[in-house]
């Protein structure tokens, strides 16, 4: 049995903050026209929030372009996804939350034109990002394929994020990024490591040069690189078979390691003083596993 999910990762330069959403709509329409078999399209972090001024004006531009999740931007994006009949992840946006707080928030829109998931970045890149951290992990289901989890850029440096998403049943972790610095090679190692440690697909789509450092990546549940871009603008396409997650977890990575079947009924919980909690063997299995 196969559970295919056809994806497109749009490694592109960001669009200017505050410009009409119609420009992005044309970008997505062009992608859908070039790759008509794609079911799930992903853009980089803050793709709709490029800056045109000096670095010191970045926070002010984000502030000016922030909207609540029920604002006109989300409504236009939902309509776009519905018109094209695709799953659309427009990267992350600057969300204006309660009390005017700003969040770096990833969104997922369904082919029916609905906002089905929003995730506030739990680990903003401090001290460089002016956003408040989110307080929960987010997964959502793509019918007939499987469950998808969200992480954003710097989140990938914290193993707790990927582990928790996998425990919640995520079979694919989607990571919009806007890495402009020299640590992209380390992020690629981390993406593969999270895929291996949690036996999930990890897809990381970064901003293209000259703004970003590119090297978007698709890693399979055993950590193999299925596709990787260079620095220039491009679109990576692939078809992920989410039954590979089931296979790897059942038979083990390289036919050996079954990390989600580590414990027996006789094992006692393991205290985790760092988290003031513990690993409970009876709760170790991923949701739906």
Notable traits:
289 residues, six-stranded mixed β-sheet
Task: Explain what this protein looks like in three dimensions.
The chain is of the alpha/beta class. The chain has 6 helices and 15 strands. It has a 6-stranded mixed beta sheet, with helices on one face. Strands 3-2-1-13 form a 4-stranded mixed beta sheet. Strand 1, helix 1 and strand 2 (40-42) form a beta-alpha-beta unit. Helix 1 (21-34) packs parallel to helix 3 and helix 4 runs parallel beside helix 5 (184-198). The longest helix has 15 residues, at 184-198. It is globular and about 60 Å long. The relative contact order is 0.14.
Strand-helix topology:
Elements: E1 4-11, H1 21-34, E2 40-42, H2 58-65, H3 72-84, E3 87-89, E4 92-96, E5 102-109, E6 115-120, E7 139-142, E8 146-150, H4 159-167, E9 172-176, H5 184-198, E10 201-205, E11 217-219, E12 225-228, E13 234-241, H6 243-251, E14 270-272, E15 277-279
Parallel strand pairs: 1-2, 2-3, 8-9, 9-10
Antiparallel strand pairs: 1-13, 4-5, 5-6, 7-8, 10-11, 11-12, 14-15
Helix pairs in contact: 1-3, 4-5
């Amino acid at each position: 049995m196969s559970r295919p999910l056809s994806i497109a990762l749009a490694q592109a330069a960001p669009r200017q903050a505050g410009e009409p959403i119609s420009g992005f709509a044309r970008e997505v329409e062009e992608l859908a026209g070039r790759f008509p078999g794609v079911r799930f399209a992903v853009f980089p972090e803050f793709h709709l929030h490029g800056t045109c001024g000096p670095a010191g004006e970045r926070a002010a531009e984000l502030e000016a372009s922030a909207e609540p999740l029920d604002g006109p931007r989300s409504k236009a994006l939902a309509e776009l996804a519905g018109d094209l009949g695709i799953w659309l992840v427009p990267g992350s946006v600057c969300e204006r939350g309660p009390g005017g707080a700003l969040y770096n928030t990833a969104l997922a829109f369904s082919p029916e034109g609905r906002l089905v998931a929003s995730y506030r970045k739990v680990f903003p890149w401090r001290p460089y990002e002016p956003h408040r951290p989110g307080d929960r992990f987010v997964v959502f289901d793509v019918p007939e394929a499987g469950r998808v989890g969200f992480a954003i850029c710097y989140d990938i440096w914290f193993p707790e994020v990927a582990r928790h998403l996998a425990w919640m049943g995520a079979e694919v972790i989607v990571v919009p990024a806007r890495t402009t610095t020299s640590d992209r090679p380390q992020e690629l190692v981390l993406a593969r490591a999270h895929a291996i440690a949690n036996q999930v697909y990890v897809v990381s789509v970064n901003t293209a040069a000259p703004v970003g450092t590119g090297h978007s990546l698709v890693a399979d549940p055993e950590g193999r690189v299925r596709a990787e871009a260079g620095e220039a603008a491009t679109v990576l396409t692939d078809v992920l078979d989410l039954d590979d997650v089931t296979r790897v977890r059942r038979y083990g990575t390289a036919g050996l390691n079954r990390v989600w079947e580590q414990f027996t009924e006789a094992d006692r919980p393991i205290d985790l003083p760092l988290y003031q909690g513990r690993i409970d063997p009876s709760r170790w299995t991923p949701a739906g596993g």
